[in-house]
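[audit] Reproducing an earlier prediction to check determinism. Same input, same settings, fresh worker. If the tokens differ from the archived copy the diff job will pick it up downstream; this log only records the rerun itself.
[audit] input (255 residues):
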Amino acid sequence: MKIKVVDGVFIRYNIVDKTKQSIWFLHGFADSGLAYKEVFNSDLVSEFNLYVVDLPGFGVSPVNSDYISIREQADLLFKVIEKETENNVKVNIVAHSIGALIGTWICQQLASKINYYINIEGNLTEADSYFSSKPLQYTTAEEFTQSFEKEVFENAIKEERYKRYYSSLRFADPQGMRNWGITSQEYIKDNQCGFEFKKLTCNKVYIWGDLDTPKETQEFINEQHIPNKLYKGVGHWHMIENSKNFYADVSAIIK
């Protein structure tokens, strides 16, 4: 694994061969690229060019005043991906939770270059914003952060998956989290995000588990015939909770 910064975006990466396909990994709300730490120990390292990003305001990427909203950050990442894939090799996107909004928009913008989009429990319905909508319940970003850190810490004491999440949350910028929470709501209302994902013409699959996926979203998957893969007994962070099987399946799906 190597690291670099492109247009203010911190990227963990591994290049096998510039002529091979790339996979871009996007994290969710209050998270960071650390969510995909195990990918660099998977078989994907020898098969694809890997890019794991910290989006602005998360991980070690600072808030970017020119790209405040979640939609603007999708535009920024689109530019970064274009720079890194100028040789027109196919691109694959793996996005988690509300970061899948960005993943969907990237797939729209890079339509001709996308080979596969793997959406890990991304927002399909309003019910999926159980984390990202929390900032709206507070007057300031600091008030939200204090409450949310306490809530996640209590879970981290009991569950390993929350320990990883808590480590990233501690580095997330309070205003960056609030910006995502506020600016994502218009795209979530009336399940717009789910219909945008459904309309994508590229190869795609929705990864979900039966522990955390809301009932409304499970119904949406069935009613709208969303191409999907269910992992029974797995929660929200498939790349952490079920990393070995998950990355093996990612390889199989993309191939």
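[audit] rerun output stored. Observation attached for the diff report: The chain has nine helices and eight strands.
[audit] end
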